[in-house]
Specification:
Layout (H helix, E strand, L loop, with lengths): L1 H22 L1 E8 L2 E6 L4 H13 L4 E9 L2 E6 L5 H13 L12
Length: 108
């Protein structure tokens, strides 16, 4: 009885940790055949254009980029197929934009 209770508590803790981790993901972009595609979230258009340009310049054919909210700010996590120079350039571009805030629509 005690073992099943401890197991249930452990499963609840793991589920809670996974839920918190999923909430911290801001957006995810997947690169297939050199073309980036948004898989999750709503990245700003300027960042999408930067990803497209960097993928073209570094000839990246496949990869995944995930923006994660951390205590020290936004961090970009990339797959191993993305070169370190490209990752550093994309991280710098991510720091320049404001993500997670509502963007105003222009009035006419």
């Amino acid at each position: 009885m005690l073992i099943s209770l401890l197991l249930m508590i452990a499963l609840l803790l793991v589920a809670g940790a996974l839920l918190i981790w999923q909430v911290s993901i801001i957006f995810s972009i997947e690169i297939e055949d050199g073309h980036p595609r948004v898989r999750r979230g709503d990245p700003p258009k300027t960042f999408q254009h930067t990803v497209r340009d960097v993928a073209r310049r570094y000839a990246i054919q496949k990869g995944r980029l995930t923006a994660i909210r951390r205590q020290e700010g936004l961090r970009l996590r990339g797959s191993s197929s993305i070169p370190k120079e490209a990752h550093a350039e994309l991280q710098a571009a991510l720091q320049r934009i404001k993500v997670g805030q509502k963007r105003r629509k222009k009035r006419r």
